[in-house]
Amino acid sequence: MIHEAVSRALSATGLSIKDIDSVVIGNMEHFEGIHLSDLWAIDGSGGFMKPTMKVATGGCTGSSLAIAGYYHVASGMSDLCLAIGWEKLSESGGQTTTGIITAFDPFFERPAMAGAVGSLGSSANAYISRHGIDIARVADVVVETRRKAARNPHAHLRKELTKEQVLDSPMISYPIRLADMCPTSDGACAVILGSERAIRRHGAKAAYVQAVDSAHNRTYIGDVSGIAGEQIDSLKVAAIRAYKKAGIKNPIAELDVAEIYEPCSYALLQWMEYLGFADPGRGIELFEEGTVRIGGKLEVNPSGGVMCTNPIGATGLIRVAEATNQILGRAGPLQIDGVRRAMSTGFGGSNWNEVLIYSKEPS
Amino acid sequence: MKTECAKALPGSSYAELVYEPLSLLMEDHAISHSEIETIITCSSDFFDGRTISDMSIQDVTGSPGKSASKVSNDATFAMLYAWMRVLSGEYENCLLVAHAKPSEGSQPHIENAAFDPLLLRHLGLTNVTASGLQARALLEAGAFTEHDFALAAAHDRRHAGLGSATLEDVLRSPVVSDPIRELEAAPYADGAACLLLASEEWISKRNAKSVTWLRGAGHCTEAHYPGERDLTTSAALRQASARAYAGAGVTCPRDELACAELSAHFSYQTPLWLRELGILEEGATLAELLERRSWEPKLNPSGGLMSGNPGFAAGLYRILEIRRRLKARQLGLAHGINGPLGQSHCVWILEGGTA
User: Is the pLDDT of residue A230 over 70?
Assistant: First the structure.
């Protein structure tokens, strides 16, 4: 799986593994039960006899890998750095929650925190109560997301759903139904980050990284502002810093596509608000008005996003690949015309959020 | 700054483990949380028994709201990432924090989980059983003798201030995995350590004291499957050290280094690592290096990992032990490894500051 992703990244760029100076790789090792997984995966990663490093930050591992690759190059330490994210959740015994719940304090939090679904449920519940959002309206988000994923050859859940099917799917943590929630997937993703000089030397095509940033909240949910940790201000903090670095004032007008790490439909609405796409409580209108739909002004998650594909350690890096493929005209059936600026995000435990902004031209 | 390594610190949470050295560091540099720009943490989810093991120390490091990341390798590797963040010019300083509490887990089970689940794990391989194969391979190849291994253990035990530190003590101790003896194994320990990395501009602006310069670094990883490796050599360490020496302009490490702290899980690794680092001549014995080449005080002055192996934090302990001993313009070497049999190595060359 890792080898397949690496081979595809190399053939897409016309590079050979010999050209790669360093490798950054990551997954969350409790899911597969493999300790020192970077060392174990060396045959597939191409890291043999190269400088390698493992970065693992939870759900946002993939975006953290891209950011680590960026610093490998920006520091002058590497000319070409291969970033690889992967996860094989089918080997976690079908119980991803068992792997996630250990992130929480064993005495105070673990008894009450049922992995990702419980905390996202309480956050979504607080969100819809505060803004008076009817859950039937949110079903549209799932319908549109599945419509996008159906076109994506790399997506996991490619079956389209009707609004009725979404509303009939089992309730798993109010107000989140099964269809609202991301799946557990197997997958790997590889992205190559390089200096301008190296990319020119190899005659490869590349998107420019304009900004990277990240921020996370306090660990204890009681320390997080808002009802039940609803206020994910760390995403806002990271986005404000990244927009400043990239010189973005109006994201809706200045970005052409955004690949957002949304663990569930409600989170996507909240995240878009924190990213400054809509005022608080009005994220749903971006779907209703078509702004973020296929053909909209700022298409969000043309790939179908995390709600359709979620191999955890790869998920954030898939966002990077999908966003930059749009700039490079490599997005196949998902391609949007004339993409000049793109954004991707990562999300994980402790509301760890990461924002990356890319452009077609140097800034 | 570091916590004194201890076999077990049952009264400390991970956060408390980190709090002690971090408060000392902040006091020493007279720095507040708001002045720390970015943070790299270093921990293992397996050692901690917690996924996203950095979550347990976020509040104590003051990382909420800041750009941070976590490296899940030995801290010498995490230090590379911290260095890169400063070198990129985006940040003027970066806090590096590493912790591990091996006393809370069953280390043989954790070590076993590092081997391939289909081909190797069911053989019962752990760090010590796999290392026995490597030590035996070295003896069979005639590279070193059991005397070299015992001498390395006695040397490190003496420097670590441990009892049973004579050659005879070591050779009399029971064999735990042929040919490795009980007193030749570095004991696991709980510990946490931290270091502030900063740009030259920030250092002069702050008029910072106790500065150590980072002169060179290199890291490299080789094959996972032991059968694919020549266990009597370490190509990865050769390459990692070649990069570090090139960066620091070191041509003859044996003569130019004032001291070196190595990460050897078992004493047989000490002569092997020294040879691959170009410090021990091919065919020479460890005794010759220590006595005739006057490396007795230079090698592992803290006792190396024999003074306690705090998992991924071990490499940062090596860095700090070298940092604390270097006089102005002296060069020192700190070394870290990942995984059994030293699959992955990182080498740092530090220079004592004049401040």
Answer: no
B227 touches A at CB < 8 Å? no
Decide if A28 and B235 are in contact by the 8 Å CB cutoff.
Answer: no
CA distance, residue B128 to nearest chain A CA (Å): 16
Q: What's the pLDDT at A231?
A: 60
Show residues of chain B in contact with A237, CB under 8 Å. Answer: 65
Q: What is the pLDDT, as a whole number, of residue A233?
A: 81
DSSP state of A79: S
Is 0.90 surpassed by the pTM of this model? Answer: yes
Adjacent-strand bridge partners of B266: B185
What is chain B's percent helix, strand, coil content, to nearest 5? 45, 20, 35
Query: Do B139 and B179 touch, CB atoms closer than 8 A?
Result: yes
Q: Identify residue B216 by its one-letter amino acid code.
A: G
The answer to whether residues B131 and B177 touch, using CB atoms and an 8 Å cutoff, is yes
H or E segment and range at residue A243:
helix A233-246
**A57: pLDDT confidence band, cut at 50, 70 and 90?**
very high
**What DSSP string runs through B262-286?**
---SBTTHHHHHHHHTTSSPTT--H
CA dist., res. A55 & res. A57, Å (int): 7
Mean pLDDT of A255-282: 97
Please give the share of chain B, as a percent, with pLDDT higher than 90. Answer: 92
| Strand-by-strand arrangement of the A299-300 sheet | A208-215, A352-359, A341-348, A257-259, A299-300
**pLDDT score of A118 more than 90:** no
Q: Which residue in this structure is represented by tokens 């996008």?
A: A148
B68–chain A Cβ distance below 8 A for any pair: yes
Q: Which residue has the higher pLDDT, A30 or B138?
A: B138
Collapsed DSSP state (helix, strand, coil) of residue A256: coil
Q: Strand B212-221 to strand B344-352: parallel, antiparallel, or no bridges (unpaired)?
A: antiparallel
Contact (CB, 8 A) for B268 and B180: yes
Q: Which pLDDT value is given to residue B6?
A: 73
For chain A, percent of residues with pLDDT exceeding 90: 84
Q: Is the dihedral of CA B167, B172, B177, B178 positive or negative?
A: positive
CA B316 – CA B154 distance, rounded (Å) = 23
| Rounded CA separation B254/B280 (Å) | 7
Residues in B touching A33 (Cβ below 8 Å)? 113, 117
Q: Do B71 and A55 touch (CB under 8 A)?
A: yes
Within chain A, how many helices (H) and strands (E) appear?
15, 11
